[in-house]
Write a structure and sequence with these properties.
Blueprint: E1 6-10, H1 17-28, E2 31-34, H2 35-48, H3 55-64, E3 67-72, E4 75-80, E5 83-84, H4 92-102, H5 105-119, E6 124-128, H6 131-135, E7 141-146, H7 149-162, H8 169-185, E8 198-201, H9 207-228
Parallel strand pairs: 1-6, 1-7, 2-6, 7-8
Antiparallel strand pairs: 3-4, 4-5
Helix pairs in contact: 1-9, 2-3, 2-4, 3-5, 4-8, 7-8
Length: 229
């Protein structure tokens, strides 16, 4: 197969896109691109360097940052300027502030450059907030994942609990509602469904069911390409 396949998955926080994308990338042997981890990395560095709240400093960080992602054993390891910050970017503080960083236009421009460069390496599964609409508008398969708010709160709270991070259920709720509002309401690359994206509501289906449906889409696409080519 000469043409590289790109599968783009968008959706709000805790909608299941990361779990499905990782599983799918492993199953198919595709590259996994966690764009959210990139924005978390910028956010962590902004906090660490006292740049949060100073847009010019954040933009300067984005222009000079060296981000490397390594997907190993189901985990995306994140390196910035040679140092691993995989655990640090998943803190409640980063989680609460990442949408503020993500809405800065110049930051998104720099991240998209890196994301498109990664896509040149082979078949790809990418997930985030603007993958189907901005980063890869010509992706072979576009999916918009969603789930009911209460289900997403339960998932995110469980994630923090399993990592030993102390946070209340109500704090998780507030953070998710805030992120949804910021992600969907920002002027630059807002979270929205692409017109030609398939909608997956993951509230009441298993990861396995999600993957089976996506694999059907992939197989249909590959069969169509084989016929037309």
């Amino acid at each position: 197969m000469s043409k590289k396949i790109i599968i783009a998955i968008d959706g709000p926080a805790a909608s299941g896109k990361s779990t499905a994308a990782k599983y799918l990338a492993q199953k198919q042997g595709y590259i996994y691109l966690d764009t959210g981890a990139m924005y978390r990395a910028i956010t962590y560095m902004a906090i660490k360097n006292d740049a949060f709240g100073h847009e010019d400093k954040v933009i300067e960080l984005a222009k000079n940052i060296d981000i490397k992602l390594s997907f190993e054993d189901g985990v995306t390891r994140v390196f910035v300027n040679g140092d691993e910050i995989t655990e640090e970017i998943r803190s409640p503080e980063v989680n609460a502030k990442v949408s503020e960083i993500s809405k800065i236009a110049e930051v998104r421009v720099e991240m998209v450059k890196i994301q498109r460069k990664i896509s040149q390496k082979g078949n790809l599964v990418a997930e985030g907030r603007d993958i189907t609409t901005v980063v890869f508008p010509n992706a072979d398969i576009k999916i918009f994942m969603t789930a009911e708010l209460e289900e997403r709160i339960k998932r995110r709270f469980k994630e923090f609990y399993e990592k030993g991070i102390k946070i209340t259920y109500e704090e998780v709720r507030e953070n998710l509602i805030k992120r949804d509002k910021l992600d969907s309401g920002r002027e630059v690359s807002p979270l929205k469904k692409a017109e030609d994206a398939f909608i997956f509501d993951t509230t009441n289906i298993t990861v396995e069911e999600e993957i089976d449906r996506i694999l059907d889409l992939i197989n249909n696409k590959l069969n169509h390409n084989a016929i037309t080519n």
